[in-house]
Amino acid sequence: MAKRLIILGGGESGVGAAILGKQKGYDVFLSDAGNIAGKYRKELDEYGIAYESGRHSEERILGADEVMKSPGIPEKNELVKKIRKKGIRIISEIELAYRYKGNSRIVGITGANGKTTTTSLIYHICKTAGLNVALVGNIGYSFAKQVALDPKELYVAEISSFQLDDIHEFRPNVAVLTNITEDHLDRYEYKFENYINSKFRIVENQTADDYFIYCEDDPVTMEHIGRFAIKSNLLPFTMNKEPNQGGFIKNGQMTVAVRDERMDMSVYDFTLKGKHNQYNTMAAGIAGSVLGIRKEKIRDAVQTFESLEHRMEFVSTVRGVDFVNDSKATNVNSTWYALESMEKPTILILGGVDKGNDYSSMMDLVKEKVKAIVAMGTDNRKIHEAFQNDVPVIVNTGNAREAVHAAFHLANKGDVVLLSPACASFDLFKNYEDRGNQFKDAVREL
After folding, report:
1. d(CA 424, CA 435)
2. What is the Cα–Cα distance from 373 to 295, expressed in whole angstroms?
3. Can you tell me the distance from the alpha carbon of 311 to that of 45, in angstroms, rounded to the nearest whole number?
4. Residue 112 assigned as binding residue
5. CA 39 to CA 320: how far, in whole Å?
6. CA separation (Å) from 31 to 25, 62, 309?
7. Does an H or E element contain 408, and which?
8. Of residues 159 and 72, which shows the higher confidence score?
9. Is the CATH number 3.40.50.720 carried by domain 4-91?
């Protein structure tokens, strides 16, 4: 009899896991207590996967052999507690993907900050070197779906602590931990220790054939690294000393040393600016070297990597409020992804030329994360109609400067102001770049 795999959550990771599970002969059923976005329903129908939305059929779920839980569902969820109590094994999407990856290698990147940049740069290094590689995980494309539909020899995966919470066998050949700062403590019983343990799970199944790349200048990492029985080869990166294996920066020069290979490069040649990005670049350079990529190719990649302007681009923090420019989000789906990645209370700047937008797929995320909407367009009626029942404050503004000032006024310390318009820009702006640049200029004037 086919193994019964129940999937909780109908987002990117849940639907990807459902597709892979179905392909591998499991009896798959997907359940989402909220609304499943149209594009995901379409995929579920296309692959003939049974699903429900707006409810959980408890009896059916508790009859599972295994449950794949979306990383967004916390342990304190009542249904999750019942599944645990019954002793049903819960796995994460990366665990399922790992099970069927074949001989492919995995680079897994986790950390509180810098993981998206580091992941994107490692992927860029691998692409520059001509490797058969895919970019997967927390970055927006399901690892399981990639394994099912377009398997590669190498996967570069951005991994959140929530995804690591439900691994069993998952083992990256190369693990990168960028740093650890207090984050998501609401999901870890407000114990920083639990979050730290979660991050270090990335190395728990590694063997002496694997590599662990970590920041030796990160106090939390260094305070706790001794508690874990790490079997893999340690490759630290630092700006304070000169390890003979790993990476360091001294006098504006980055050195990466792995096995017998050494590579030097001036930090002035990095396209990514800022000290935090020097750390990210060291981590990525070491990973490239571990994968056996020639130093010329790594140098090339580091010099040609573009941090993605207008795509979740961090602008600055003003009096404790972060400003993020996601002007490239010209449709609801892009804004949905942007909101999904938000971890702080959000003031959302929306609007522009509405191309017949259906905002309903955003509704659940807006309810959960958005405290106010600043509408920026010549006609904001549709935004009011869509969100007036769910968002306490909706303000109209007529240009980028007004929008930034209104959002800043509504924000408290610890909030984030996100420009992610979900609309085209040609009412008040020439194009999305112009919109993003005007937003950034207005933020800099605050």
Report:
1. 10
2. 47
3. 31
4. yes
5. 36
6. 18, 12, 36
7. helix 400-410
8. 159
9. yes
Q: Is 117 annotated as a binding residue?
A: yes
The pLDDT value recorded for residue 342 is: 85
What residue type is assigned to position 288 of the chain? G
| pLDDT tens by residue, 411-443 | 999 999 999 999 888 889 988 889 999 999 999
User: What's the CA angle centered on 142, arms 141 and 148, to 5 degrees?
Assistant: 125
**Residue 57 and residue 50 in contact, taking contact as beta carbons nearer than 8 Å:** no
The answer to the question of whether 115 is labelled as a binding residue is yes
Dihedrals phi, psi of 329, to nearest 5 degrees: -75, 90
Q: Are 435 and 400 in contact (CB under 8 A)?
A: yes
Q: Where in the chain is the domain with CATH 3.40.1190.10?
A: 95-304
The helix/strand/coil state of 2 is coil
207 annotated binding-site participant: no
What is the rounded CA–CA span in Å between residue 163 and residue 184? 13
Which CATH number is 95-304 given?
Answer: 3.40.1190.10
Evaluate whether 201 touches 164 at the Cβ level (below 8 Å): yes
Distance (Å, rounded) from C-alpha 255 to C-alpha 252?
10
Residue intervals of the chain classified under CATH 3.90.190.20 are: 313-445
In the CATH scheme, what is the homologous superfamily, with its name and number, of domain 313-445?
A: Mur ligase, C-terminal domain (3.90.190.20)
Residue 113 is assigned to a ligand binding site: yes
